[in-house]
Write a structure and sequence with these properties.
Elements lengths: L2 H4 L1 E8 L2 H14 L4 E4 L7 H5 L6 H27 L12 H27 L23 E6 L7 H10 L4 E6 L1
Antiparallel strand pairs: 1-3, 1-4, 2-3
């Protein structure tokens, strides 16, 4: 990689509409680019498949935290009522599972919510205080009526001129290089 490419974040290409963006995403994925992203003002059905994204791991993270909450809540109540502080009240059993349901349920929900929030932060590499794309005036259209593909310079197939030619052939209406 040359020093110019090291200072470059990537190449940003704008497309006319969601259909052209979808076509460009499929072409970019098919060409073998791995470090690229698509930006639009609204979700586009099928974009994940077009980009070749794998299913999210967030569900496994949430399930793991839910199981920890469930088992932890149950274990805590069983331990306190039968081992640490066994009190026989009216001959009731020390391990009274129906009485343990509210606390177990609440801990399951609490820890799965924490897993969802912090797992999302972790998987999305957040907090990210700045992105080089914000330096582009045209990229501001991504919140209103712009449809963009950015191919990052970290990609193994990235070559400034070849990537630019590829995006032109994919139908981009405007292409610009984004500096870091």
């Amino acid at each position: 990689m040359s020093t110019i490419e090291q200072k470059t974040h990537g190449i940003l290409a704008e497309f006319k509409n969601p259909g052209h963006l979808m076509k460009a995403a499929k072409l970019t994925n098919k060409a073998g680019y791995k470090k690229f992203d698509c930006h639009s003002p609204f979700p586009i059905h099928g974009m994940d498949d077009a980009m070749g994204l794998k299913p999210s791991k967030l569900g496994f993270i949430v399930m793991g935290h839910a199981l920890i909450g469930f088992l932890g809540g149950l274990a805590l109540q069983i331990w306190t009522s039968s081992i640490a502080y066994p009190i026989n009240i009216s001959g009731k059993p020390f391990v009274n599972l129906p009485a343990f349901i509210p606390v177990t349920f609440e801990l399951t929900i609490l820890l799965s919510a924490f897993g969802a929030v912090f797992g999302m932060f972790f998987l999305n590499n957040l907090p990210k205080l700045h992105n080089s794309l914000f330096n582009s005036e045209r990229f501001k259209k991504a919140t209103d009526d712009g449809f963009f593909v950015v191919i990052e310079s970290d990609d193994a197939l990235y070559d400034a001129s070849k990537t630019r030619q590829f995006l032109e052939s994919a139908g981009a209406v405007h292409i610009e290089t984004i500096e870091k």
